[in-house]
Amino acid sequence: MRAKHAGAPVRRIVQFTLDDPELMLWGGELILRDGKPVGEVRSAAYGHTLGLSVALGLIEDRGGVDREFIASGSFEIDLAGERHPATAHLKCPYDPKSERVRADAGEPRAAA
To answer: Which of 5, 15, 55, 88 has its CA 20 to 30 Å from the CA of residue 96?
Structure first.
């Protein structure tokens, strides 16, 4: 309850996807918002379903990291000294409304 009333946290884990499907993230890369460093990639892999690199990044801002902070900024990830555009996600980018899960819920699956 205290945390909720304290306002936006100054640190937050955010999911990112790189806009270029050819690039691969490894972890430890710098995350920039509007050209300024705000955090680093903590975990990354290639999301085959999305066809993009997917990362979890810890970002920080003294003013708080809320939806507005994320939505109003332009993000890049520095990969081997080159900055690449990235998209920040607060929900899973693959199926954010769980529509696939609901569609499959009542149907039996074929044996593999």
So the answer is: 5
